[in-house]
Amino acid sequence: MDKKEQLQSLRSEINEINKKILYLLNERASIALEVAKCKAQLGISGFDPVREAEMLSELFEENEGPFSNEELREIFKNIFQKTLLLMDRQDRQEKLLSKKLGEKVSFTVNGVEISSGGGRMLVVAGPCAVENREQLEEIASFLHERGLKFMRGGAFKPRTSPYDFQGLGLEGLKIFHEVAHKYELNVVSEITDPRLVEEALPYVDIWQIGARNMYNYALLQEVGRQTKPVILKRNFAATWEELILASEYILQAGNDKIILCERGVRTSEHWVRNTLDLSSVPILHQETPWPIMVDISHAAGRRDILSPLAKASQAVGADLLMVEVHNHPERARSDSQQQLNLEEFGNMLELLEVGK
Ligand code: PEP
Ligand code: MN
Q: Is the pTM for the entire model greater than 0.70?
């Protein structure tokens, strides 16, 4: 055999061995998953450092080289670690309640249907914060005229700085509810504390959990005990998995009317407030049965790029769009630079071909 042929034959031997290793790795993984199930039933934790050390020393005893024990340790540590991740994934998937609900979810809010993957995008618009009755009247009548059914507005504002306007609280929410319902609009408003849920309940049609509170599990459980739908916003540093797991707190508590909201994540970019991560929409549609919302205003933090972002959200299949709209954005008490005036918002609706 000449050298070339020898090389060829050694390579095919290696290819065969690769396949055997692959087969054995997957066989090992399947058995490990069985082990994980047994352990779960016995209430034992998945990670067992003593067992790992025993397996390694047994391998070292058998080791005849050419790999050194240290090199083997590295290879097997990797296998152990990946197996633990696999066990973890299996465990989570079994627990995820939302997966078991089936494909797509839809529910109604005062007769208006919200559904996942329904094809038409509902628009939720309104001011960043509830400021006064005149402001609400002017915006609400415009939304009503355009055929919209949902109005947003914060009465409890979780501001980054404690010195900024904190919202009008329950009094503001009562006025908001009165004005919105007068114009046949459902109230979408944020709640920041589980202790507020009971008193806010009569005045809210859809709860909003803000990005800062995505990890506030007591709050998630409290809205989970209610029957009104919940918009859960993704925290600016949260992975999709963390968002999904946070939604499970709501579901576990009994509420299966959940809307997941992408509102941008923090990156090194500072020309926008956050970077709008539109891949969330198809990913969350694949991974959950919930309607998916995109909040373009808190993502961009500036009004000049909102229309293309709205169009893009529609293109990736968002079920709902959130936009901040103010009758006088320049006078707004919060998020002034990102709110659209009524005319700009009207143009956006025409571009999207939604509303009347
Ligand atoms: C809001 O929608 O009013 C808000 C504060 O947004 P976020 O929680 O996404 O920052
Ligand atoms: Mn805002």
A: yes
Q: How far is the CA of 291 from the centre of ligand 2 (A)?
A: 22
Q: Looking at the 3D structure of the chain, how many domains does it have?
A: 2
> Which of 233, 235, 261 to mutate to test ligand 1, by most ligand atoms within 8 A of the CB atom?
233
37 and 159 housed in the same domain: no
Query: Residue 348 carries which side chain, given as an amino acid letter?
Result: M
DSSP 91-107: HHHHH-HHHHT-S--EE
Query: Which tens digit of pLDDT belongs to each residue from 239-288?
Result: 999 999 999 999 999 999 999 999 999 999 999 999 999 999 999 999 99
CA distance 34 to 42: 13
Q: Return the ligand number nearest the Cα of 274.
A: 1
Closest to 125 (Cα-Cα) out of 295, 263, 7, 270? 295
- Contact between 190 and 158 (Cβ < 8 Å): yes
- The whole-angstrom distance between residue 173's C-alpha and the CA centroid of its chain comes to 26
Mutate-to-test residue for ligand 1 from 128, 188, 190, highest number of ligand atoms within 8 A of CB = 190
Q: What is the CATH number of the domain that holds 149?
A: 3.20.20.70
Q: Which of 43-57, 107-121, 318-332 has the lowest mean pLDDT?
A: 43-57
**Nearest CA owner, ligand 1 atom 5:** 210
Same domain, 157 and 112: yes
Parent domain of 90: 3-95
Q: Which residues form the pocket of ligand 1, taking CB atoms under 6 Å from any ligand atom?
A: 128, 154, 190, 210-212, 233, 263, 295, 298
Which ligand is located closest to the Cα atom of residue 233?
1
Q: How many CB atoms lie within 10 A of CB 226?
A: 19
Tell me the ligand closest to 332's alpha carbon.
Answer: 2
CA of 329 to the centre of ligand 2 (A): 11
For residue range 88-131, list pLDDT tens digits in order: 888 888 888 887 777 789 999 999 999 999 889 999 999 999 99
